[in-house]
Amino acid sequence: MAIGVQVTIDCADPQRLSEFWAAALGYQLEPPPPGYDSWEQWATERDIPPERWNDFGAVVDPDGRGPRLFFQRVPEPKTVKNRVHLDVNTGRGVARESRRAHVAGEAQRLVGLGATEVRTVDEPNGYHIVMLDPEGNEFCLQ
């Protein structure tokens, strides 16, 4: 039996987070269902009012290996630290002596997309940068 994994993230602006995470992970915005040219066309056919079109969004791995990320609008703001976070392994396959510089460069790219760098963790058994996405959700970049 094949099991798929989806990570669901509560947020204020699903479109913005979908675009951020697609760019951050090399994912793509989930295409509309077959037979539709856009999500707006799909929503219009279902009588979903335009003000509700940003109630959800999703990104998918174009290679089909990684989990789908689903973003759903919720009315309350984020108030505390995440109990679950994503670890983004950008340094896989990078030589050990180049890894820190590579991860730091990737952190700057993500800052340019709207992320915030919180702190660098440099310990004997690991190196990573703690970051926040545009809505303040923590993730680690390694």
What does this molecule look like?
Strands 1-4-3-2 form a 4-stranded mixed beta sheet, covered by helices on one side. The protein has a 4-stranded mixed beta sheet with strand order 5-8-7-6, covered by helices on one side. 25% of the residues lie in helices and 29% in strands. By secondary structure, it is an alpha/beta fold. The chain is globular and about 55 Å long. It folds into 2 domains: 6-73, Signal recognition particle alu RNA binding heterodimer, srp9/1 (2-Layer Sandwich), CATH 3.30.720; 86-141, 2,3-Dihydroxybiphenyl 1,2-Dioxygenase, domain 1, CATH 3.10.180.
Q: Roughly how many Å apart are the termini?
A: 32 Å
Could you say how many structural domains there are in total? 2
Mean pLDDT: 93
Estimate what percentage of residues fall within beta strands. Answer: 25-35%
Percentage of residues assigned to helices: 25-40%
Class per helix and strand makeup: alpha/beta
Number of separate helices: 3
Please give the CATH architecture of the largest domain.
Answer: 2-Layer Sandwich
Tell me about the biggest sheet?
A: 4 strands, mixed
Shape verdict: globular
* Low-confidence blocks of residues: none
What is the CATH topology assignment of the largest domain?
Signal recognition particle alu RNA binding heterodimer, srp9/1
Q: Please count the beta strands (DSSP E, at least 2 residues each).
A: 8
What Rg is obtained from the alpha carbons, in whole angstroms?
17 Å
CATH class of the largest domain: Alpha Beta
Give the neighbour order of strands across the main sheet: 1-4-3-2
Secondary-structure element pattern, one letter each: EHEHEEEHEEE
